[in-house]
Design a protein that fits this description.
Bound molecules: flavin-adenine dinucleotide, FE2/S2 (inorganic) cluster
Strand order of the largest sheet of chain B: 2-1-5-3-4
Helix content of chain A: 25-40%
Distance between the termini of chain A: 59 Å
Number of helices of chain A: 10
Oligomer: heterodimer
Number of strands of chain B: 5
Structural class of chain B: alpha+beta
Shape of chain A: globular
CATH topology of the largest domain in chain B: Ubiquitin-like (UB roll)
Distance between the termini of chain B: 41 Å
CATH class of the largest domain in chain B: Alpha Beta
Strand content of chain B: 5-15%
Largest sheet of chain B: 5 strands, mixed
CATH topology of the largest domain in chain A: Uridine Diphospho-n-acetylenolpyruvylglucosamine Reductase, domain 3
Number of strands of chain A: 13
Largest interface: A-B, 30 and 37 residues
Radius of gyration of chain B: 16 Å
Structural class of chain A: alpha+beta
CATH superfamily of the largest domain in chain B: Beta-grasp domain
CATH architecture of the largest domain in chain A: 2-Layer Sandwich
CATH architecture of the largest domain in chain B: Roll
Strand order of the largest sheet of chain A: 4-5-10-6-7
Shape of chain B: globular
Amino acid sequence: MVNGYAPISLREALELMAAHKLTPYAGGTDLMIEEKREDSFLFLHKIPELKQVSDDGEYIRFGAACTFTELLEHSLTPALLKEALSRIAAPAIRDEGTIGGNIANGSAKADSALIFFVADAQLKLAGAGGERLLPIKDFYLGRKRLDRRPDELLVEVLLPKKWLGSYYYQKIGARKALAISRLSFAGLLTIEDGKIAHCATAFGAVSDVIIRRADIDAMLIGKTPAEGKAAKAAYLAAFNEAIIPIRGRVSAEYRKTVCLNLLGDFLERFGI
Amino acid sequence: MDDAIVFTLNGKQVRYAGSATARLLDVLREDYRLTGVKCGCREGECGACSVILDGRLANSCMVAMGRVDGGTVTTIEGYRETARFKALDEAYASVAAVQCGYCIPGMVLASECILAKNPHPSEAEIRVGISGNLCRCTGYNAIVKAIGIAAKEGEGLW
Ligand SMILES: Cc1cc2nc3c(=O)[nH]c(=O)nc-3n(C[C@H](O)[C@H](O)[C@H](O)COP(=O)(O)OP(=O)(O)OC[C@H]3O[C@@H](n4cnc5c(N)ncnc54)[C@H](O)[C@@H]3O)c2cc1C
Ligand code: FES
Ligand code: FES
């Protein structure tokens, strides 16, 4: 085809990526917004390796070109991810938009990426030099800057299963069906044997990159809920320092206040 | 880069020799003269350009031609030939759900996708199903009602 390739295997796709300057095209729902499209596209829709979903015991492994609708319909998709996916745009966007495109677009507003952040998901990238695995947090270098070489494709998202059961999720958008989230928050918290065994939080659409500060969340881990309550003020103060909002459609101060309110509400839900 | 893009358009196999980066919306309107596909925003926000791509609703302004290679595209012109269309058409008419008509081709294809997935949708499910299709005239209630009527009157079609 003219100005594009539609390979039918991952191997063929990687060979093409190594040989030409190509822009991967998954669902096009971010790419097609831009009026100027100078590069040729590498279409991903015919590559079976990018469409698989499996459970290896430790991780649920999602092919990067799975669409939101496909994952909403899949029995292996955890409830938290389904909740976030069901709040994305409208059916036609969910039918084409993919998790790989959501992540590789590099936006801090990406709703599925937020869930992969809070769960400390790993990304599998493949290129001419072979495969590598990296934590999603390390993939984002800054605003729209990603650790992806031009010949690399995002192949798979590995979602750790362990702490996903007990969660809190909020998305505050403008118009319901359409809005790219103005602000979103996800938290995981598990209490085992009277102690906080796990606590993880992620803030979307507030900064250049989704905020995930495991070092701050660690302040609560190992504590009883009562001890957690005592440490709450210091915990909230640490996030107050850590959240540096960007100026967007909603004022920076408003964004930050909402973030801290959601964080407080999250802890309260778990009796902290 | 030689072979054309081959896909099924309204039941017929076609070959498109133009650019893989062209918008499906523009190609349908300009090359195939399928002007039932409307353009309202070119940003995925309004649903006027809706088509059915591989059995699911898609905004054709958000789709590059290379994506349809090997696939199936149905526009309102193709869908008009079906019994399901007739059921929807009658239902829309019975409650006067059409005013200016600009949103209607997309709305009808969205209705088809709702019913194909779930022949007995609740009102809430219908509203979710058409949530990406904006209508500036009707206020949606008549359209939601029409889809419910089509589900009942067209029992067995979906
Ligand atoms: C009307 C509308 C509403 C929207 N609402 C939301 C919303 O509520 N929440 C939200 O999060 N997003 C929203 N979006 C944005 C968009 O739909 C998502 O970000 C979607 O996940 C993008 O996926 P895609 O497959 O369409 O990406 P594409 O447009 O195909 O690609 C996006 C970027 O990722 C790259 N890429 C894609 N796949 C790969 C891969 N496997 N390897 C390497 N690079 C890759 C592409 O080259 C491109 O740079 C909305 C968009 C529109 C038009
Ligand atoms: S023209 Fe495609 S969604 Fe509006
Ligand atoms: S009838 Fe006019 S836009 Fe819907």
